[in-house]
Design a protein that fits this description.
The chain is α/β, with parallel strands linked by helices. It has 37 helices and 28 strands. Strands 11, 12, 13, 14, 15, 16, 17 and 18 form an eight-stranded antiparallel β-sheet that branches. Strands 5, 6, 7, 8, 9 and 10 form a six-stranded antiparallel β-sheet that branches. A four-stranded mixed β-sheet has the order 1-2-4-3, sandwiched between helices. The structure holds flavin-adenine dinucleotide (FAD) and iron/sulfur cluster (SF4) (2 copies). One of its GO terms (molecular function) is iron-sulfur cluster binding.
């Protein structure tokens, strides 16, 4: 029995691509948001219950331990393991909402955001007080005790399956597992007979502790099977696998308000909260005022916040009421209460879902600002404890004091007296053993404090590995032996996440902390939280932004420390981390540290591609010829498609691609033919004429035309027709061909060559716009993003298509809006341009019944990426067709994105200009 024999048995069960054993990918996929440095020896991607059950049986036979993985956002190390990590494929994304939305059945890989999106039409949401990250999965939430269940389908360590919602399954289980259930019943008898133990368990339960197994189940239920189901929630993957759960939902709060108040003394705030009566308080969190100086930009904070002294706090109070009148009356009473209190000032009352989320985001930005300013090379560790309310203030003050003494940069405390929760983040350096030791001592102090106060560890973030030893120190001997008895009953061979919740006796957990090396200022602040994975197209296919950073750090550290660095690590890094990035920087928009991993990728590509510099310059200098060649190739492709059939050409190119190790592009049946470039001679146009506008057709729209099966036109032709219809005097930058913003080169790391092209373009725009006098229309959002700011610096006003239509065209045309439902894709560039508002305004006028599929952030196409790396857009858009019910076609504003969207949705995606052209006519002179 060995790890190797386990792997060879698994090879009989799973296809090779779902068994990962090379240390490079295991390293990348193994990290989570915690400070645990454990890395798996194998990662298995499991597709079905059958496979899961078989793998669990094999693990038991071969004595190999398993760690289940959701989104890997756990903060206490419970999602990391040193043996086999189990990832779930998208086959575990199933869900079913009951008719009124009051209950929902969920498979474990569905994320909490997805569930809330499903429930929104019913006016309901998941019943959770916590705010986990959007990508946290149902499996992770239940296993970490954040989500209560009403029923479950479980796989136990011996591979047996039981479903509490299925009578037959329950009856079979009672028969086949009679002995296990009898032993659970025996444990129950021992517990209820022990008054002291009952009291200890009930005290934990009163504090809503997430510190280990829900022993309260033994007191609340008699049926051992019911006890088993209750124990799974909060068991952190140590008692069984959660295959499906039934979860109750709650009404979306309709009448809620939040207010931020500042206090110079925390006692003033705590006194106020103590005296608040008659409010349905949902949150009463205070954040230590020491966070305020780190917050940027300061002007986004209420003015009173900037005046608080360092001992004060900012309070975030949230309450709700049954009716709008009741809410208003609560707001009035609250205002009077605050005005009478010692608060330094308070904000307006934020109302409705968007107001509440604005308030939440301010609170998390405060914490993130502090973490972002930690010293380079330190690792943030988040902890959450609970103490009785009588001890809240002294415990909070003591922890704050220790934080200051232990590590002043990057540490912060917050808490909510109504739940007794105290949270903090501390940022130790783990660059030496002494650092680790001093952090351990700091934690021991805190644990002793919580213990003395009769509080509980791991209030919100679970026990994990980090708190396992300390938690056993706090629990009575009786409770500890009960916990162990339970574990050995359900997992006798200790194969499920050993070392989590309970210290692994056979192999005590050596605290192995994740150091954060200083390698590159672009990403040094990364905490590994994983929030970027919600938008990253690399996730699930190759490496996500978080994984790119993790392996990059490791490679650089090994180089620095002159440790072994196999050549294949660097080769694989290029393929799995660099080539799989579309560099749109969407990750930056969700990263709490503001990191744009795309920028790191571009800078590393510059190093890798250095030897091709001359070629890049050649392309930049002869771009018109290159574009002609590209158009010629597309024309040739169309001819081949006509001759042999588009599907056959695709199948053939797929074979070639496989033979060349993915080095050749895939000639998709949907690859467009050539477009017709714009030939315009401006000298014939009267520049002095009123209503002159500049139209800059991007090289993309001058190159990519329509695919064989498309019923569409080339974009420049459509745009020119619309501009004519709107009676605008149109001029084009000269030359009309060969001008390009240079982003394809820049994204490949040829910054100087790309910059040269951008400068040429800006110079041409400056000339033709009469030094900025005429507005410039750019028809491709990705290009607008690159050019807009630089153009503005030269006084040129460049508008992306949606902005241009919104500002100059809607009121110059007679609109006949589309009556059918259309799908919309707002490109990431449009979002980065902050032009979504124009885009939606235009849609509201042109196709009011539009829908925007959720969860499709990036289409994975990004310039040529979609042609040379089609797997990326396949991955990014795989959920798209399910979201498009009832739509007749789609609309976007970037030609390459439209190509990818059309391919993967089954609908044709047109440009905004094509939509406008079809649904508008010229105004008569009288109307102008
Ligand atoms: C920035 C940030 C903020 C956070 N804020 C909060 C917060 O406000 N409140 C809060 O409660 N948490 C918070 N967390 C912690 C974390 O997001 C939650 O604990 C979440 O529930 C973890 O979900 P996950 O999908 O990432 O699970 P993972 O971290 O992947 O796994 C969590 C545990 O569940 C087990 N597991 C996963 N799937 C299964 C399964 N199918 N069957 C059995 N066991 C399984 C794993 O083995 C592991 O022990 C935060 C984390 C971050 C990074
Ligand atoms: S890049 Fe940002 S979002 Fe991604 S893991 Fe790092 S800190 Fe988190
Ligand atoms: S730029 Fe896009 S693909 Fe690249 S790491 Fe960021 S989100 Fe992922």
């Amino acid at each position: 029995m060995s790890f190797e024999s386990f792997v060879s048995s698994v090879q009989q069960l799973l296809p090779a691509e779902r068994i990962i054993t090379d240390d490079f990918r295991c390293f990348a996929l193994g990290g989570d948001a915690s400070c645990s440095a454990l890395k798996p020896r194998a990662v298995l991607r499991i597709n079905s219950e059958f496979e899961m059950s078989a793998v669990m049986r094999l693990a038991r036979t071969h004595q190999v331990s398993l760690t289940f993985r959701g989104a890997g956002t756990s903060l206490s190390g419970q999602a990391t393991g040193g043996s086999v990590l189990i990832q779930l494929t998208s086959a575990w994304n199933g869900h079913k909402v009951e008719p009124l939305g009051e209950r929902v059945h969920l498979q474990p890989a569905v994320t909490c955001n997805e569930v809330n999106r499903l429930l929104a039409p019913y006016g309901r949401k998941l019943a959770m007080r916590v705010e986990p990250p959007a990508i946290a999965t149902v499996g992770g939430l239940v296993a970490n005790g954040a989500l209560e269940i009403q029923g479950a389908r479980l796989i136990l360590a011996d591979g047996s399956v039981v479903d509490s919602r299925d009578e037959q399954s329950v009856a079979d289980f009672r028969l086949s597992q009679a002995e296990l259930l009898a032993q659970l019943a025996e444990l129950r008898r021992e517990i209820v007979a022990d008054a002291e133990l009952v009291q200890e368990i009930q005290s934990d339960s009163a504090q809503q502790s997430r510190a280990g197994y829900r022993l309260q189940a033994f007191i609340a239920y008699e049926d051992p099977l019911e006890i088993l189901f209750q124990l799974i929630a909060g068991s952190e993957g140590t008692l069984g696998f959660i295959s499906e759960v039934a979860v109750a939902t709650v009404d979306l709060p309709r009448h809620q308000a939040a207010v931020i108040a500042g206090f110079n003394l925390k006692t003033d705030y705590l006194n106020l909260v103590g005296s608040l009566q008659g409010f349905d308080l949902q949150r009463a969190e205070m954040i230590d005022a020491s966070a305020i100086p780190a917050f940027k930009p300061q002007h986004e904070l209420p003015v009173f916040a900037q005046q608080l002294n360092a001992d004060g706090c900012l309070a975030f109070l949230e309450f709700r009421a049954d009716t709008a009148q009741a809410l208003q009356s609560d707001i009035d009473r609250f205002t009077a209460w605050l005005a009478d209190s010692d608060c330094v000032g308070f904000s307006e009352f934020y109302q409705g879902a968007s107001g509440i989320s604005q308030c939440h985001s301010l609170a998390s930005s405060l914490v993130n600002s502090v973490v972002a300013q930690r010293m380079a090379g330190t690792t943030p560790i988040y902890q959450s404890y609970a103490v009785p309310d009588t001890d809240f203030e002294p415990a909070f003050m003591q922890i704050k004091q220790w934080l200051t003494e232990f590590c002043c940069a990057g540490s912060l405390a917050w808490g909510d007296v109504t739940t007794g929760r105290i949270g903090f983040v501390v940022c130790p350096s783990f660059s030496s053993e002494a650092d680790s030791e001093s952090f351990v001592q700091f934690r021991q102090q805190v644990v002793a404090l919580v213990q003395a106060a009769g509080g509980c560890l791991a209030a919100d973030y679970g026990v994990g590995r980090l708190n396992a030893v300390a938690m056993q120190g706090i629990a009575s001997n009786k409770k500890n032996s009960l916990l162990r008895a339970l574990k050995s009953l359900l997992d006798p061979d200790c194969i499920l996440n050993p070392g989590v919740i309970l210290e692994d006796e056979g192999q005590p957990f050596q605290v192995s902390f994740k150091a954060t090396p200083v390698v590159n200022a672009k990403i040094d602040a990364c905490t590994g939280c994983g929030l970027c994975e919600s938008v990253c197209v690399g996730r699930g296919l190759e490496f996500s932004a978080r994984q790119k950073i993790a392996v990059y750090r490791e490679i650089e550290t090994r180089k620095e420390q002159k440790r072994e660095l196999p050549k294949y690590w660097e080769d694989q890094f290029k393929t799995l981390a660099l080539d799989s990035c579309v560099t749109t920087g969407l990750c930056q928009q969700v990263c709490p540290m503001g990191i744009n991993t795309g920028q790191l990728v571009v800078s590393l590509r510059a190093i890798h591609n250095y030897r091709y510099q001359r070629l890049a310059w050649g392309c930049a200098r002869h771009f018109a010829a290159l574009s002609s060649w590209a158009r010629g190739s597309l024309q040739l492709l169309t001819s081949l498609q006509r001759l042999f059939g588009a599907e056959r050409v695709e199948a053939f190119s797929r074979r070639i691609r496989r033979l060349t190790g993915d080095r050749t592009p895939l000639l998709l049946s949907t690859t467009p033919g050539r477009s017709r470039p714009v030939y315009a001679r401006n000298e014939l146009i009267n520049l002095g004429k009123e209503n002159t506008v500049v139209y800059w057709p991007s090289c993309i729209s001058q190159t990519f035309g329509k695919a064989l099966a498309d019923d569409r036109e080339n974009i420049p032709a459509v745009v020119q027709r619309v501009l004519k219809k709107a009676d605008l005097n149109v001029v084009h930058p000269q030359p009309t061909r060969g001008l390009c913003c240079g982003q394809t080169l820049a994204k490949k790391g040829f910054e100087a060559a790309g910059e040269h092209m951008l400068e040429e373009l800006i110079a041409a725009l400056w000339d033709i716009s009469s030094a900025g006098r005429y507005p410039v229309l750019a028809d491709t959002s990705a290009c607008s993003l690159r050019v807009k700011q630089r153009a503005l610096e030269r006084g040129i006003h460049l508008y992306d298509s949606s902005e241009f239509i919104d500002k100059f065209l809607l009121n110059r045309l007679k609109l006949n809006p589309e009556e059918q439902q259309v799908a919309v894709h707002v490109t990431c560039s449009t979002r980065k341009l902050q032009a979504e508002a124009s885009f939606y305004r235009v849609l509201n006028r042109l196709a009011p019944r539009w829908v925007e599929p959720e969860g499709i952030d990036c289409c994975g196409y990004s310039n040529e990426k979609g042609f040379v790396y089609p797997e990326l857009s396949e991955q990014a858009l795989k959920g798209l067709p399910a979201e498009l019910k009832g739509c007749v076609y789609g609309v976007s504003n970037s030609r390459t994105c439209e190509i990818g969207l059309s391919r993967h949705s089954g609908l044709t995606y047109y440009s905004l200009f094509e939509l406008l052209d079809r649904h508008s006519e010229a105004l008569s002179e009288a109307h102008r």
